[in-house]
Amino acid sequence: MSAPAPRPGRLPRSPVVLRDGRWWLVGRSGTIPVSDPEVTAVLDELAQAMAAADRTVSALRSRQGGPSDAGGRR
């Protein structure tokens, strides 16, 4: 079984964004696709780990009666 695909959007605190299933480097001079399979695999793993952490924080906050928005500060 394969891991779930990361959600589209910017990876927090990084110059990369996932758009239409592809990672892109975003800089002042423009945007270029990330084509190295090893780099994209690491980005996928990092995005999945961050999503899992967000879900865990959200679950902990809901148990404690706090705000459920895990997309805030880390």
3D architecture notes:
- This protein is α+β, with helices and mostly antiparallel strands.
- Helices cover 38% and strands 22% of the residues.
- It has 1 helix and 4 strands, in the order ββββα.
- Strand 2 (16-19) and strand 3 form a beta hairpin.
Q: Indicate the proportion of strand residues.
A: 15-25%
Give me the side-by-side strand order of the main sheet. 1-2-3-4
User: What does the main sheet amount to?
Assistant: 4 strands, antiparallel
Structural class: alpha+beta
How many runs of DSSP E, i.e. beta strands? Answer: 4
On the 0 to 100 scale, the average pLDDT is 84
Secondary-structure element series: EEEEH
Q: In percent, how helical is the residue content?
A: 25-40%
Q: Count helical runs.
A: 1
Through-space gap between termini:
30 Å
Low-confidence stretches: none
Rg from alpha-carbon coordinates: 14 Å
Spatial shape: elongated
